Amino acid sequence: MLESQNWIKTENVSDADLIILNTCAVRAKATDKVYSALGRIRRAKKESALLGIVGCVARESGSDAFRRIPELNFVLGPQSYHKLPEIIKNPETKLLNIDLGGLEKFDELPQMTKSPTVAYIPIQEGCNHCCTYCIVPYTRGRELSRPFDDIIQDTINAAKTGAIEICFLGQNVNGYKYTDETGNLYKLSDLIRETAKLPEIHRIRFTSSYPTEMTDDLIEMFGIEPKLLPFLNMPIQSGSPRILKMMNRPDNLDNYKNIVKKLKSVRPDIQISSDFIVGFPDETDEDFEQTLNIAKKIKYINSYSFKYSPRPHTAAAMMSNQISEQIKTVRLQRLDSQLNENQREFNTSCIGQEMMCLCEGLDKTGRHLVFRTPYMQQCIVEKPNTKIPPLQKIKITDANKASLRGELIK
Question: How is the beta sheet containing 118-122 ordered, strand by strand?
Fold first, then answer.
């Protein structure tokens, strides 16, 4: 959007005429980082530069952000990015716009003229599940799904301008549902089916999913559409039915396990990753052991685990029996140890396999290429002397917990 108005990106804060922090508020640490960065930026920026924050911290902080950082010129919530041109035209006016509104920003944003290899396409925003620990319903609002035809137009444009992989995004991405004017209902499975018809697109994935929204039509897509990667992030958060109930999450673990079983029946090579929260209020040692057990049983190949972080506007922040940081730290270390063991075991099992991988570019040394496998593992390959296509078959030769090593198959 800014490039269309002749702005040019710079990496140097002191050179910038416009500085924007795009923010996340899902954990307290993320919010703290924003204000720490703002403090550094306001000391480094030139006096005339416009400075603002956009995204979830803007929505969370509201007008208080101006009090904390007086040098701020604008504070825009997640639905207000398209207000940037208005700010640039009126730099003397401080602008606060944190209304949740609708999805009109997508109508305002210009089409990409050159897409990256992987195009991230938002299809849905907000969440109706209202987990007791989660600030998303406050910062993003209730679920809204974009019109089906608009999304398909975005995928077509991405394919024509360089993308070979499409990643559909949403706070509850598999909850996508859109009914058009004639009453036709479209779901995520329909988006995948239509996108797969594009010859330029070779890989499709989506994030972040909610367990109960993994409906049979979506599960079946993993069995019938080869462009859909055999990898799914399906957060469970805890292995304790009691804690899941307190989280307002699906507490029937048999249903979760049944979804995994169905997925593996239609796509035997599919692998699952997850998100975990340790130290939720009133979590006992027994509750935590149940979380360890589900991590061992499902054998998640790559997961994100965090200590519970009280967030404003959430029910869990007001619960009694908050867990001490010391206990959270010990539990997180134990869970990470199990998850790392799972990841190392899977990575090692890949040695000797040949995989079609997507090139992300050079590593920091410039001597190697970084690829992503169909399971989103990082694979490091020695840089060849000749130019190669972005999709390349690679033989996996070595592995550790964090990444794979491989060689190009000529």
Answer: 118-122, 165-169, 203-207
Give the model confidence (pLDDT) of 264-307 as tens digits.
Answer: 999 999 999 999 999 999 999 999 999 999 999 999 999 999 99
- CA torsion angle for 261, 266, 268, 271 (degrees, to 10)? -60
> Interior CA angle at 242 toward 295 and 262, to 5°?
45
> CA–CA separation, 94 vs 292, rounded Å?
49
Helix (H) or strand (E) holding 148: helix 148-160
**Domain edges within the chain:** 3-97, 105-349, 354-408
Which residue(s) pair with 275 in the sheet?
304
Apex 310 CA angle, 307 and 313, nearest 5: 145
Pairing type for strands 95-97 and 74-76 reads: parallel
- CATH annotation of 354-408: 2.40.50
Q: What is the mean pLDDT of the chain?
A: 95
pLDDT tens per residue across span 331-368: 999 999 999 999 999 999 999 999 999 999 999 899 99
Q: Are 260 and 297 in contact (CB under 8 A)?
A: no
Q: What own/partner pairs with CB < 8 Å and gap ≥ 24 does 160-163 have?
A: 160/200, 161/112, 161/113, 161/114, 161/115, 162/114, 162/115, 162/116, 162/117, 163/115, 163/116, 163/117, 163/118, 163/119, 163/200, 163/201
Report the distance separating Cα 249 and Cα 256, nearest Å. Answer: 11
Superfamily classification of domain 105-349:
tm_1862 like domain (3.80.30.20)
Task: Count Cβ atoms below 10 Å from residue 40 Cβ, excluding itself.
Answer: 10
pLDDT of residue 154: 96
Residue 402 DSSP class: S
